[in-house]
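Q: I'm writing up a methods section and want to include an example of the input and output format. Could you take the sequence below and give the corresponding predicted structure tokens, formatted cleanly so I can copy it straight into the document?
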Amino acid sequence: MAISLLTALIALGLLHLMPSLARWRDAGLFRHWVALLADTSGASRVLLALLPPVLLCLLLAWLLGHTALGTLLFSLLVLLYCLGPREFEADLEAILAAPDNVRREAAAQALTDDGSAVAWNAPALGVAIAYAALRRRFGVLLWFFLLGPAGALLYRLAQTLNRESVLPLDPDSRCAASHVANAMDWLPAQLLVFTLAVVGHWEAVIGAWRRWHQQATATSWYRDGPDFLGAAAQADILVDIEAGDGYAEEHSDPLVELVRLRSALLRALLAWLSVVALIVLGGWMS
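A: Here is the clean output for your methods example:
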């Protein structure tokens, strides 16, 4: 766990200092592999698409894991690949740096990985930021801490398989890919909601989370996406907009809410890393 924490800190630091590192990420080999599986369909195609790369990752981790340095370097390479497909903070900076609302809205489209449009208003932008944070940062980190490099790679490839419309998947395979991606989103999304509640507006966030779960079915955790995260992020923003006191117009400004939510997500990240650090310290002291 100590090496995993150090790896995560180095990866996040490198991407913050050199966002251009994100440019080396390329899912072309994975796309080619998925295309080779065209004679299969449904869950078997998804299993064949995901299992060999993950097994190869496990094999390389075992071969290179005889030393702490080898484990660190391999884990770092995998994590840098998986914290994507683009650098999260760089996309937020691009929105803030845009000179007008038209170009800000155009820059905001980079937050989605499935081609869905992001409207230029505070609630819609907040939801897009929350999902981008989940799938580019928090989901990757959680599975990395739980299962190592193979867990992070499995999460990234599952999201790629589900969200890239260019992949030639039949309807049954796309449905199965959606189930896998949603299942892997469920746990990190739940934890992210509670973290945002702690660092933001507790009652609004938890209220939205509870309402979603009251209406959810027993299979929602894998059949549906983590819509409770979007509902929680939107509720957190609407609290500010409806606060009154003459500041409603300011709070409804998408840029104002972007800066506030960005700060909240940074605090959430620090909270997650602090919990992992406490676990590491507890292991050393036991």
